[in-house]
Amino acid sequence: MNGIVKSSLFVFFQIYFLTVLCNCPSGWSRYEKSCYHVSRDSASWAEAMKMCEIHGSFLAGIETDAEDQYIKTLLGAQRHSTVYWVGGSDWDNEGEWKWEPHAIPFNFTNWHKGQPNNVGNYEHCLALHRVYHYEFADNNCHSPQHYLCEKPDTSSTETENLGK
Prior knowledge:
Layout: H1 2-21, E1 29-31, E2 34-38, H2 45-54, E3 58-59, H3 65-76, E4 83-89, E5 98-99, E6 104-105, E7 123-129, E8 136-140, E9 146-152, H4 154-162
Parallel strand pairs: 4-9
Antiparallel strand pairs: 1-2, 2-9, 3-9, 4-5, 4-7, 5-6, 7-8
């Protein structure tokens, strides 16, 4: 009986601490201060942005090498797609890549060799392709692809607010 109680308490505290320390919704993965969701459906880049917004998120932005490595691992574990939209675009000004929806200029890049190439003057949205080892590539924004949403982990926001 004592062993069952200890096991039950152990499981309870594991679940409790995971819930408290990680406030990502079910189906989302946490990395540092963000939660990520890999879509199972396909959409154009603009439609993907809207779908992320419906869930209180945005198309993912990749700001560091460490975050890039995490996302490569996350996408590499997926089996339902080979191309994913993320939040980069040079839609407003060719060659000036920004993270949408906040128009934040890229401070980190990991372009695949020969990218961006703007084939046919139609490639203004950032995609991660399995064949390119999930390095950055421009893509036709109207092409339906799976997508990666990102939103702040509410536990990191709450923790930061408590410290102020």
